[in-house]
Write a structure and sequence with these properties.
Number of helices of chain B: 19
Strand content of chain A: 5-15%
Low-confidence stretches of chain A: none
Number of domains of chain A: 2
Largest interface: A-B, 24 and 22 residues
Strand order of the largest sheet of chain B: 1-4-3-2-8-5-9
Shape of chain B: elongated
Number of helices of chain A: 7
Distance between the termini of chain B: 173 Å
Largest sheet of chain A: 4 strands, antiparallel
Low-confidence stretches of chain B: none
Structural class of chain B: alpha/beta
Largest sheet of chain B: 7 strands, mixed, barrel
Radius of gyration of chain A: 22 Å
Number of strands of chain B: 26
Oligomer: heterodimer
Order of helices and strands of chain A: EEHEEHHHHEEHH
Mean pLDDT of chain A: 81
Helix content of chain A: 55-70%
Shape of chain A: elongated
Radius of gyration of chain B: 67 Å
Chain lengths: 216, 696
């Protein structure tokens, strides 16, 4: 299949009377309940997919708010305690001239999560409405979101490593702030949300387009 | 793709849809519930915000500075701002909810910061951690308040703390040190707070706290005194420096003792006087049990020199108080001019007025107000003519202009005055003048001069040379007496007399010789003959030989030749005799010449030839005698001269009577030296007798 941007006539597996196992990719005739190869329950379409996406997306977004409001890192140096939020820390770094690191933090912690929220919401909306966006591009977007999802945890890794390394009792210590917990939750729910999305619906939307096309 | 499977109807499981959907929506619902729960809980847990006003920020920072109660954090400063008009710094403190009800109107707040005082170091932990605000409140819930006034220093008396809360007042000259400890037997049993000057300026007052466990030490008979600094005294037992502890030496302190038993328990708020020392404190116990004195102001127009702090205030001769302070006052509104008047603050002890019933300052004031309306006035009177000291005397004056003793509760009541006892002042002035004159006597200079003289005498006496002088003088005197008593000196006048006698005789003889000059002229020949002899002393032997030769020839030659030769001989002899040296010839020579002259005369008168030989023999003898005499002549002349010179000097010395003492002094000095030399010589000889023999 090529991304031509022009909707093409496609035949889905369901139209072909088949259902594919999502785990082992074995195709079964429609009506088969359980994959006889790997034992997974077979469904032609996950009817609750969008609900799950939206529910988890909502939780992820809820968690993202305190993740940005509360301090991410709690740095204790001798007698001063410094608490910085994600954006505050990036701004501080930019003030100190470390624009590169500030940009990395902003991209990894703000731009990407927000982009994911937007992308998931867009996908979830687009399978319902008759969008003009090419189905292939939607799939690509979905794959990118899925792929990038795990890398959003990089912030949490940094906090975890710093907290583990910098523990000089009394002199300096770094402990994760409450935002780290919420950020992790947000990433987790966003990933779950993305996974709950059934990409097969992208093609259903297109086939509906095709029908509309045929009707014309 | 030709084999298109048949259409399959999709069977949506309705039941499953509902259950699945509800299941997944639980998650966001739970999240919401948790979020709201947390939000509500945190809101619910928040305590109220109170506002504490401070004079300055002193390191308070929003979000950092904690409020502590007994060193436990009970709140945090949320915001620091200024009050309206920038008068104060407002710290908005979020309290913990469970503490908040106790923070009532009686609470106090202060900033704890590092402090180094003589009493020690406090708040050291805040050097690194920053300041914090300490609060104190009692353990009962009282009226709520949200705005408080904070202090920069810790209050002495904290709400809820036990302890006896009393106040201290200094005597009129006493001093108080802020935050000084109250010591008892070396143990701190309390502390005084920040001292303040009383409105009248006459004394300092401060609050004090006796810790709860030492409360029983204080009763109404307890007397306090100041132990700050040190006392130095010199007595029969030696010098003594006394101070109670290093801390009180540096930072001041007061201590107390209960000298007698039987006092009532002290109550909170009781005022104790801090005496300057222990003696005063002890003595104060035996005076009338004194109450708060009544203070009044007396303003005098006239000269008050002699009035001092502590001077008595007397009523009808009985001492009822003392002068607390003296100061100048200029009040145009009150007196109508800008003259400087003297404002004397007196304190009157109500206990001495014999008030019936209530003995207090107020009662005393009422009494005095009544008396002033009847003519009681204050005036200056002299205490003693000698010292010129003044006292304040209260007495009732008849026909006094109306005046009242007004007490408005703020300023001190002013006691009206009357004309002072001037005669006493005059007498005092006279006596003062006498004292001034006595004062002006140069006693110090006199003493200084005397001291200088004493010093000089002392140094002179202690001079080693002077100490040796008596010895020298004694030796000198002994030497002198030895010399004076020596036979030689005793014989000096005798020898002098003899010499003078001899000289007299000689002079007489010489005069006689001049009388016999006519006789001498007859012997011209003999003189000329003897001339040869005079030419030199050495020529005398030749002369003798010539005479012998002449005598020998005379024995042989004819008589006329003999006479001729004899004539030349006698002329020579004559010349010898007439020479200046011969003029002083001794008697022996003259005698010989006389004999010779007589012989020659006999010869010239044509005496017997038979006598010639005898004559010649005599002449030879005479010539021999002359020769001998002539040989000794120069020495004798020298001696005679020396004697004359000596005698002349001696006589001269006696003549110059005014110079006698000086000469005698010189002589004594010479004698002293001579004596010393002799002494030395004698010692030398004693040591080394050989030196006399060997000349060394």
């Amino acid at each position: 299949m090529e991304f031509t941007g022009i909707p093409q006539k496609t035949v889905t597996a369901r139209e072909a009377g088949l259902v594919a196992c999502t785990r082992c990719n074995r195709a079964w005739p429609l009506g088969t309940d359980v994959c006889r190869r790997c034992g997974k329950t077979l469904v032609s379409r996950d009817v609750f997919s969008l609900q799950k996406v939206w529910a988890l997306w909502l939780v992820g977004l809820m968690c993202y708010v305190p993740a940005n409001m509360y301090p991410m890192l709690r740095t204790q140096q001798l007698f001063t305690v410094d608490e910085s939020t994600i954006i505050g820390g990036a701004v501080d770094l930019a003030h100190y001239g470390a624009f590169g690191i500030a940009a990395v933090i902003l991209v990894a912690s703000v731009v990407i999560p927000l982009g994911k929220f937007w992308a998931i919401a867009f996908l979830a909306v687009s399978v319902r409405s008759k969008g003009t966006f090419a189905s292939g591009k939607r799939l690509l977007m979905y794959e990118i979101v899925e792929y990038i999802g795990r890398w959003s945890m990089i912030d949490i890794f940094v906090v975890a490593i710093l907290s583990a390394l910098v523990q000089l009792q009394g002199l300096a210590s770094i402990t994760p702030g409450p935002a780290a917990f919420f950020f992790a939750l947000s990433v987790i729910f966003t990933m779950l949300s993305a996974q709950a999305f059934d990409p097969r619906m992208i093609w259903d939307a297109q086939s509906e387009d095709d029908k509309a096309f045929e009707n014309v | 793709m030709s084999d298109i499977p048949p259409k399959v109807t999709i069977k949506p499981a309705q039941k499953k849809r509902v259950s699945g959907a509800s299941f997944i929506w639980i998650i966001p619902l739970m999240a919401l519930v948790v979020a709201f729960g947390v939000a509500w809980q945190s809101y619910n847990a928040r305590g109220p915000v109170i506002v504490v006003n401070f004079a300055d920020g002193a390191g308070i920072a929003a979000g950092e500075t904690k409020l502590k109660y007994r060193d436990i954090v009970v709140g945090e400063v949320e915001e620091v701002s200024f009050s309206e008009g920038l008068a104060q710094v407002e710290a908005h403190i979020r309290l913990k909810k469970n503490i908040a009800p106790y923070v009532d109107a009686s609470s106090v707040f202060w900033i704890v910061q590092p402090e180094v005082t003589a009493q020690g170091v406090s708040g050291l932990s805040t050097v690194l951690s920053g300041v914090y605000i300490e609060g104190s409140w009692d353990r009962e819930i009282g009226d709520t308040a949200t705005t408080f006034r904070g202090s920069d220093v810790a209050p002495l008396i904290k709400p809820g703390d036990g302890g006896l809360q009393i106040a201290f007042r200094t005597t009129s000259n006493g001093t108080l040190t802020d935050n000084a400890p109250i010591m008892f037997r070396g143990i701190q049993v309390g502390q005084i707070g920040r001292a303040q000057i009383a409105r009248s300026g006459a004394f300092a007052i401060t609050e004090g706290l006796i810790y709860e466990q030492h409360r029983h030490l204080i009763n109404s008979s307890t007397r306090f005194w100041d132990t700050s600094g040190f006392s130095f005294s010199v007595g029969p037992s030696g010098a003594e420096i006394d101070f109670s502890s290093l801390a009180t030496l540096l930072g001041g302190g007061i201590t107390f003792d209960t000298f007698v038993s039987g006092g009532d328990d002290a109550r909170d708020g009781e005022v104790f006087e801090v005496h300057p020392d222990k003696e005063t404190a002890r003595n104060s116990l035996f005076t009338v049990s004194e109450v708060e004195p009544l203070q009044m102001s007396v303003i005098f127009d006239e000269n008050v020199s002699g009035l001092a702090v502590g001077a008595p205030v007397e009523l009808n001769g009985f001492r009822i108080g003392s002068v607390d302070s003296l100061s100048g006052i200029v009040d145009f509104n009150q007196f109508g001019d800008s003259r400087v008047r003297l404002n004397v603050t007196v304190s009157i002890q109500p206990a001495r007025l014999g008030l019936p019933g209530d003995v207090s300052a107020d009662a005393a004031l009422r009494l005095l107000q009544d008396r002033v309306a009847n003519g009681l006035r204050a005036r200056l009177a002299s205490v003693s003519l000698l010292t010129g000291g003044l006292k304040v005397e209260l007495l009732e004056v008849e026909d006094a202009p109306e005046a009242r003793l007004v007490a408005n509760g703020i300023d001190l009541p002013i006691m009206p005055t009357t004309k002072s006892e001037t005669s006493g002042a005059d007498a005092a002035a006279t006596v003062e003048g006498v004292f001034t004159r006595i004062n002006n006597l140069p006693i110090e200079e006199l003493l200084n001069s005397a001291i200088n003289a004493m010093n000089s005498a002392d140094s002179l006496m202690s001079n080693a040379d002077l100490q040796e002088t008596p010895g020298d003088v004694r030796a000198l005197l002994s030497d002198l007496s030895g010399i004076v008593t020596s036979d030689d000196v005793k014989n000096i006048p005798v020898a002098l007399n003899a010499t003078l006698t001899r000289v007299e005789a000689l002079v007489a003889e010489l005069e006689q010789q001049r009388i016999a000059e006519t006789l001498g002229k007859t012997l011209t020949a003999a003189s000329e003959a003897a001339d040869a002899v005079t030419s030199s002393v050495a020529g005398v032997p030749e002369l003798v030989e010539d005479i012998q030769t002449v005598a020998a020839k005379a024995a042989d030659l004819e008589f006329d030749k003999l006479i001729e030769e004899l004539t030349s001989l006698t002329s020579s002899a004559e010349a010898l005799v007439s020479s200046p040296d011969t003029a002083q010839l001794p008697v022996a020579l003259k005698g010989a010449l006389d004999q010779l002259n007589a012989t020659l005369r006999e010869l010239r008168e044509g005496g017997a030839v038979a006598n010639v030989n005898q004559t010649l023999a005599s002449a030879r003898n005479a010539a021999d005698s002359i020769a001998v005499s002539a040989r000794d002549l120069p020495q004798m002349i020298d001696r005679l001269n020396a004697v004359f010179v000596q005698a002349g000097r001696t006589i001269e010395g006696y003549n110059k009577g005014d110079q006698l003492s000086r000469s005698a002094e010189g002589a004594l000095r010479d004698i002293q030296q001579a004596a010393k030399a002799l002494e030395k010589l004698a010692r030398t000889i004693e040591r080394n007798p050989n030196s006399l023999l060997l000349g060394r």
